[in-house]
Amino acid sequence: MSVTETTERSKRDRTYSITELCREFDVTPRTLRFYEQKGLLHPARRGWTRLFSYRDRARLQLILRGKKVGFALEEIKEMLDLYNLRDGQLTQLRIASTKMRERLEALRKQRVELEDAIGDLERTVVVVDGMLKEREAAQPKAANS
């Protein structure tokens, strides 16, 4: 076995405590327990201690990426669970590709809608600020009358 293979194997055999993963990914222990409850992570147990595997760590990284772009936990779980099929990940990759393309399109649509809303709000701010300026300019005159 080469040094690279040995290093890779030791990485894969490594376990992580809940504290280590929380620190590395800036999540709370409650978050990890929630993902475990939802079947997204499968830590081993040593008494009360959870030991997360290299695979759990990789799954957590994918969960957080998926959430960041707006996937629901159910969608993330569906994509992750397809990894267990023995088809060389073809099904997982096909479904992930389809879901990612759909999400990308939804995000693009949201971006257009958000840009429209920002434009509307910017125009409204100009109008309201103009009205405010007029009222403030007229106020001292009304007070002196």
From TrEMBL:
Keywords: Coiled coil, DNA-binding. This is Transcriptional regulator. One of its GO terms (molecular function) is DNA-binding transcription factor activity. CDD domains: HTH_GnyR. It holds the Pfam family MerR_1. It comes from Aestuariivirga litoralis. It comes from the Bacteria. The keyword Coiled coil applies. Residues 15-82 form the HTH merR-type domain. Residues 90-124 form a coiled coil.
